[in-house]
């Protein structure tokens, strides 16, 4: 018995990518919150947060292709917020 691959249909991947791009663009340009890794790092973190949003926050009203939109958005925001806080804490620790 080997490890099984996690299957993500293309449309689910596309929904997660769209959510991650929108959230990371808003966070980077509109809110002017910059993380240490740059925009592309923030985009990847937002995608991972959106991917984990549905399992963590549950299935809500609108779920196209097994991706709950609202929990995915909340997951992307939470992931970027956590990474931003982590980078600020690490920057403060290195200044001392």
Protein described:
The model has no long low-confidence stretch (mean pLDDT 84). This protein has one domain. 70% of the residues lie in helices and 0% in strands. The chain is elongated and about 45 Å long. It is mainly α and 96 residues long.
Could you provide a short overview of the structure?
The protein has one domain.
Name some characteristics of this structure:
96 residues; mainly alpha; 0% strand; elongated
Globular, elongated, flat, extended or rod-shaped: what is the shape?
elongated
Major sheet details: none
Structural category is mainly alpha
| DSSP summary, beta strand count | 0
Q: Proportion of β residues? A: under 5%
Number of domains: 1
Radius of gyration: 15 Å
Separation, N- and C-terminal Cα atoms: 50 Å
Furnish the topology, listing elements before pairings.
Elements: H1 10-30, H2 39-57, H3 69-95
Helix pairs in contact: 1-2, 1-3, 2-3
């Amino acid at each position: 018995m080997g490890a099984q691959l996690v299957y993500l249909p293309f449309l689910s991947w596309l929904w997660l990518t769209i959510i991650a791009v929108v959230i990371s663009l808003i966070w980077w340009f509109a809110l002017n919150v910059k993380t240490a890794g740059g925009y592309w790092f923030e985009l990847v973190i937002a995608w991972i947060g959106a991917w984990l949003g549905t399992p963590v926050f549950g299935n809500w009203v609108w779920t196209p292709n097994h991706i709950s939109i609202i929990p995915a958005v909340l997951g992307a925001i939470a992931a970027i917020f956590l990474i931003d806080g982590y980078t600020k804490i690490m920057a403060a620790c290195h200044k001392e």
